[in-house]
Amino acid sequence: MGVEAMPIKIIEDLPVRKQLQQEQVYTIESSRAISQDIRPLKILILNLMPLKETTELQLLRLLGNSPLQIDVDFLHMSTHKSKNTATSYLQKFYKTIDEVKDDYFDGLIVTGAPVEKLDFDQVGYIKELRSVTDWAQSHIYSRFYICWGAQFALDYYYNVEKIRLDEKLFGVFPYQNKEASHPYIRGFDDVYHVPQSRHTRVDYEKIKTIDQLKVLTCHPDFGPDIITSQDQRDLYIFGHLEYDRDTLKKEYDRDASSGQEVQLPINYYPGDNPEKTPLFQWKSHGHLLFNNWLNETYQNTLYDLSKLPEL
Question: Catalytic residues per the record (predicted)?
Fold first, then answer.
């Protein structure tokens, strides 16, 4: 008999729930979950992306494919006025750091954000983000930073510089598995494909000098993709294994229709023909990474989260 996926607990009436149910990603509402005698994993998602529902759906698909019960809460920056998401939506489905500051969580996911061309100090909510990052050291067991979120965290923790690329890294690229036995990339192929969409990179030479960091996967030209701290409580990824098949297509179509001179995503469309359906080359590794992260968090987190050791 196979192991069934447990439901993820989400707030009542979250709009993407209907789509998740259609995809047979199981969810459970708070009113039902509270009656179950289960110690679920508590995951907090700091969603910095402008299209909140798209990112919610991508991440919940991956978190929901697990035999563990996951309780998910969403966090937003109270010091940022969203242009793409109604305030009423954020008030109903999201929390602020003031609302969760006395709570403890097993895991935190910090998404990317479309602000990578700005210096960190130019980002309007950077002070609040730094406060959340400090709070997470004592209130969250495992932290998972994605794309710009990873660049920010590495700069904040270790002074690893963010460097502007001459041209945008845009497409799907092969990365090499350098630490096949590491639990975060258990099951990864020797070479796997990753969607990238960014204008910046991190200083790889600086990372090599930091004993607290381990590079798990790497590209010979573009540098690392997945990095972890030696204690495995912090995970960083610069690519987007959570992306849907058509995420890069939507980005390309958006920029092309606005009159920008935009390059075709590399290694994405069959025959580089944008009229053809893009190849979905990273889906299995996205599920592997998130399942591995959840499993490692479950195996190592404390039952009483209030006793978490601060780094």
Answer: 147, 240, 242
| 178 annotated as belonging to a binding site for a ligand | no
User: In this model, does residue 14 exceed pLDDT 70?
Assistant: yes
Is 258 annotated in some ligand binding site? no
Give me the catalytic one of 139, 182, 193, 240.
240
- Summarised one tens digit per residue, pLDDT across range 127-167 is 999 999 999 999 999 999 999 999 999 999 999 999 999 99
CB 151 within 8 A of CB 238: yes
Euclidean distance between CA atoms 59 and 107, whole angstroms: 13
Could you confirm whether domain 8-163+200-243+283-307 is CATH 1.10.1740.10?
Answer: no
| Angle in degrees, 0-180, between the axes of helices 52-63 and 283-300, rounded to the nearest 10 | 70
Q: Tell me, yes or no, if 147 is annotated catalytic.
A: yes
Q: Residue ranges of the domains in the chain?
A: 8-163+200-243+283-307
> What pTM, to 2 d.p., does this model score?
0.88
